[in-house]
Design brief:
Layout (H helix, E strand, L loop, with lengths): L2 H6 L4 H16 L9 H10 L1 H14 L9 E5 L6 H8 L5 E5 L3 H10 L4 E3 L11 E7 L7 H14 E10 L2 H16 L3 E4 L18 E6 L2 H7 L5 E12 L8 E3 L4 E3 L2 E3 L2 E2 L4 E2 L2 E3 L6 H6 L5 E2 L1
Parallel strand pairs: 1-2, 1-4, 2-3, 4-5
Antiparallel strand pairs: 5-8, 6-8, 7-8, 9-12, 9-15, 10-11, 11-14, 12-13
Bound molecules: S-adenosylmethionine.
S-adenosylmethionine binds next to helix 4.
């Protein structure tokens, strides 16, 4: 058994489910967002981390491959620091990783899971954030009050040497957070690498729609038992942004929704610099129809 499973198995299944309900209820009823005990941190590890980790892996995979070989990484609101192992697996150049996390229960479990992490147990609003090639803020900015978002982003961007990645839930609120960050970064010499293939204004009106994507992840038996779900997978919706200091951005159109297909036709919703376009590609008129047919929601049309 790996370390994560070992830790999760210290708590009986039913208690984990009760803890999950307790955390979810607190979030939904806005009675506070934080993890409030070591057991709750373990429940978070069991219920949420598989999905947030799968999304992180998906997004790290999108980073520029030719130009980007990060040696240092800082994770803001790192939780238990699970992004360290994911990043180390995808970026062999990585040498140092700092997790900034204010919640002591999260840090305590993080220390048990890995000894590859330098922890700063403090709010990143107050901490001296070390400069790093890659700065990550994953599912954390939406926990800040509205007035704290831009100060946090300003600090994060000031310490980014190459690449900043922000991830938020794939909800209208998550999108609004990402959109505000995007505006700030574009105004402060950032280059948007993904999901947008351009630095222009976002063509999506956040009052009507939201730019989000979906990651399908397989559930292990333990994960299935804990979730009381029979499906062997779950779909995690997310919003994200990759911004770089140098202009590495290729030009492309992003597929914003699941494709609509009919025999010999495929309709894609595409993000372009001025608008969302919805062209229909036909087999008869597109010699590369076979390739286009393989593309799905979240892919790039080069
Ligand atoms: C939803 S969890 C996400 C954890 C991890 N980043 C992930 O993607 O799974 C949000 C984390 O951000 C932390 N956090 C929120 N505001 C923070 C702040 N100002 N400074 C440090 N950590 C913060 C919380 O304590 C929590 O562990």
């Amino acid at each position: 058994m790996n370390k994560v499973t070992n830790i999760i198995k210290t708590i009986p299944l039913q208690k984990l489910r009760d803890l999950r309900d307790q955390i979810t209820h607190r979030y939904k009823s806005k009675q506070g967002k934080g993890i409030q005990s070591a057991d709750e941190a373990i429940a978070y590890l069991a219920f949420r981390s598989p999905a947030t980790s799968a999304v992180q892996k998906q997004i790290f995979t999108e980073c520029p491959k030719d130009n980007f070989h990060p040696e240092s990484m800082v994770d803001l609101g790192a939780g238990m620091g699970l992004s360290q192992a994911i990043a180390a697996g995808l970026f062999p150049s990585l040498r140092t990783y700092t997790g900034i996390e204010e919640n002591s229960y999260m840090v305590e479990i993080g220390r048990k899971l890995s000894d590859e992490i330098d922890w700063i147990q403090q709010s990143y609003l107050a901490a001296d954030i070390p400069k790093a090639d890659l700065i990550l803020g994953s599912y954390t900015f939406s926990e800040l009050s509205k007035t704290k978002l831009l100060p946090a982003l300003e600090k994060a961007w000031a310490t980014t040497q190459q690449c900043l990645i922000l991830i938020e839930p794939g909800t209208p609120e998550g999108f609004k957070t990402i959109l505000k960050c995007r505006e700030y970064l574009v105004q402060n010499s950032g280059h948007i690498y993904a999901p947008c293939g351009h630095n222009g204004n976002c063509p999506i009106n956040p009052e009507n729609d939201w730019c989000h994507f979906s990651k399908r992840l397989e559930r292990t038996k333990l994960h299935r038992d804990m979730k009381e779900g029979s499906l062997p997978y779950e779909d995690e919706k997310y919003c994200y942004l990759i911004a770089t200091k140098e202009n590495w951005s290729p030009t492309y159109k992003r597929i914003l929704k699941p494709a609509t297909t009919r025999k010999g036709h495929i309709k894609l919703d595409l993000c372009t610099p001025d608008k969302v376009e919805s062209p229909t590609f036909t087999k008869s008129k597109n010699p590369n129809f076979k390739e286009i047919k393989k593309l799905t929601w979240g892919d790039r049309l080069e």
